[in-house]
Amino acid sequence: MKLGLSRACFYSSCSASIFSSSIPSLTTIKPKIPLFLRPPTYSVASSDLQKWHGWAKSLASSVGSSFVESDDGPDSTLLCRELNWLLEDSLENRSSSSCFSFAACNYDSLDGIENVMLRISLDDLYQLWKQRIEERRPFQYIVGCEHWRDLVLSVQEGVLIPRPETELIVDLVSDAVSNNEELGQGLWADVGTGSGAIAIGISKISRSYGRVIATDLSPVAVSVAMFNVQRYGLQHVTEVRQGYWFEPLKDVEGQLVGIVSNPPYIPSDNISGLQAEVGRHEPRLALDGGASGIDYLLHLCSGAAAMLKPGGFFAFETNGEKQCKFLVDYMQNDIAGSFCNLNIVSDFAGIQRFVTGFRQ
Amino acid sequence: MAVSAHSLLKSMLLLRLPITTNTIVPPRVSRPSSSPLNLISCHYLNASNRTKSRHFHSPTLYTRTAETPKKHLICFNYNTSASHGKGTNYLELTDDELMRQCEMDTFKASGPGGQHRNKRESAVRLKHLPTGIIAQAVEDRSQHMNRASALKRLRALLAIRVRNSLDIDSYSPPLELLQILPLKSTIRGSDCGPQIGPKNPKFILGMQALLDLIFAVDGSISEAGKLLGLSTGALSRLILSDDSLRMAVNDLRNSKGLKPLR
Ligand SMILES: C[S@@+](CC[C@H](N)C(=O)[O-])C[C@H]1O[C@@H](n2cnc3c(N)ncnc32)[C@H](O)[C@@H]1O
């Protein structure tokens, strides 16, 4: 906890000086437009595109299982699947069937002279796929988006790529709301919102009268989250604020009906061993949870006690069984009397992943 | 999320029927890679396969069902009638209801997952507990969408693998079968509407009824054609219009020593 405190001071001083020259201010951070939303202005001979595709495929195949062996990274099967998705996002006509007929190596059927319209230049396609394989740049940063639940969220360097496990938080909220109408009509917070994934997911389900405030310390995350909120036309229900955890929410203390968060929870020592896509490219601010990984989760638990209305709901994602148990123990003993109906929920891989409960 | 009381009741009643007439058709050993179903693996709950299919605690929503009484009822019912049930009825269940009969897991549980990993766990495997049929999806870009694809495949597999016996002497084709027949069928009334093709989700229901019939006549297309008011050629063309239907029919014909349709 001591460590947590000193980190707290460090980051709050950061956030205080956020508009100073050392850190770009919000207005200067323009979110990048994901590939699939760019205009299809590049006319390319389909034979040239085929050449690129063949090259990219053999590059992917050459990886074999070497990444799997070195750091449990992607194998060539997954890389080839990503290659199809890259094609899908680049082509003007993004119906996947047209990509698949293209990718199916059925080149004879395609007229070699015919041109296709792309959203990106061929040179850039070569460049990007090289980065994917040689630098292990995450696929989602290359195409600038991630498909998450039924959403397509814009992401870019500086923002965590939302994980499939986290999709379940939305289902947990949906369950809680369907059992208690009041929850669907109140004010929610997603703290450490990153791309805005959870906030947007729950805004869509509590569509009736609820509102969601999403916070993040990272200016890039805040601007990307705003972009995503706008793309889904949710500005009227989802507000994005910048700052340190609950600090930007002082005005609504004790008024929240729900808090969700997927805070950084990886123990600092584990960061260097992460798969290259994660460790080398995703923001450390989004991953590093301090020595044991649990600093922020503990901070959020005590914060939630002050922020939530009686009867309010929370769901936090954790690193797994150990952190889940630790949190439950902390809430039952160290801050006994604050929360009830604590529950540990597993993800679809069977790992105890989430802690949920209610403000007493 | 809300399931109407009516449909709940209906599904409970259906599941409770003591049915002894259906069989599950063994899966093919291999599929040509041109098959649209080639991403599906199917196997049964028998001793040898059980070791292959990984068994996680069915996590989250679908095990926590006991919290809400509605869902609990369904679970209870399905538990008491596990491995029985009628194929058609599975297909009549809503997605939510069908999902509740399934155990879902993702593929890779090695390592801690979550923030540690990029991708891969978006692949989904559904095991339909009453029949042991497994459907999976890996090619969609989110777990949510893979789940929807896997569910769609599960429906196709249920149609293909779960057989209901029928009485040929008093046979009259159900509406969902009439609807997939070409208009020239002599028994197809004009009230059946336009022909439903393989792309329509309703096709699966008709396909299941057609397979029931073809199984009942031991794979004879001319026999089945007579009962449907179609020439052998016209019925063959219908069967060939859908890959999974064609393969299911040819598997049967193969097992009866008949030549495959092509
Ligand atoms: C693991 S990421 C989760 C992002 C997003 N909620 C998701 O699930 O994809 C953690 C997020 O917390 C943010 N964060 C880290 N420290 C923070 C702090 N002190 N206050 C607010 N947000 C913080 C990071 O910028 C990052 O976006």
Note the topology.
The complex is a heterodimer of chains A (360) and B (262).
Chain A: H1 2-16, E1 42-45, H2 46-63, H3 66-71, H4 76-90, H5 96-103, E2 115-118, H6 122-134, H7 139-143, E3 145-148, E4 151-154, H8 167-179, H9 181-185, E5 187-191, H10 197-205, E6 211-216, H11 219-231, E7 238-242, E8 256-261, H12 276-279, H13 295-307, E9 308-317, H14 321-334, E10 339-346, E11 352-359
Parallel strand pairs in A: 5-6, 5-8, 6-7, 8-9
Antiparallel strand pairs in A: 1-2, 3-4, 9-11, 10-11
Helix pairs in contact in A: 2-4, 2-6, 4-5, 8-10
Chain B: H1 5-16, E1 22-24, H2 47-52, H3 69-80, H4 87-92, H5 95-100, E2 102-106, E3 124-128, E4 133-137, H6 143-161, E5 162-164, H7 175-178, H8 203-216, H9 221-228, H10 232-240, H11 243-255
Antiparallel strand pairs in B: 1-5, 2-3, 3-4
Helix pairs in contact in B: 1-3, 6-8, 8-11, 9-10
The structure holds S-adenosylmethionine.
**Helix/strand order of chain B:** HEHHHHEEEHEHHHHH
Largest interface: A-B, 53 and 36 residues
Biggest beta-sheet profile of chain A: 7 strands, mixed
Q: What name is given to the CATH topology of the largest domain in chain B?
A: Double Stranded RNA Binding Domain
Q: How big is the Rg of chain A?
A: 22 Å
| CATH architecture label of the largest domain in chain B | 2-Layer Sandwich
Shape of chain B: elongated
Instruction: Give the helix proportion of chain B (percent range).
Output: 40-55%
Give me the Rg of chain B, rounded: 19 Å
Give the helix level of chain A as a range of percent.
Answer: 40-55%
Contiguous runs where pLDDT drops below 50 for at least 5 residues of chain B: 1-21, 28-88
> On the 0-100 scale, what is the average pLDDT of chain B?
71
Number of domains of chain A: 2
What is the assigned CATH homologous superfamily of the largest domain in chain A?
Answer: Vaccinia Virus protein VP39
What share of the residues of chain A does DSSP label as strand, in percent?
15-25%
% residues in beta strands of chain B = 5-15%
Main sheet: strand order of chain B: 2-3-4
Secondary structure tally: strands of chain B: 5
> Count the helices of chain A. How many?
14
Oligomeric grouping of the chains = heterodimer
CATH class of the largest domain in chain B: Alpha Beta
InterPro entries (chain B): Pep_chain_release_fac_I, Pep_chain_release_fac_I_sf, Prokaryotic/Mito_RF
Signal peptide (chain B): 1-23
GO molecular function, one term (chain B): translation release factor activity
Keywords (chain B): Signal
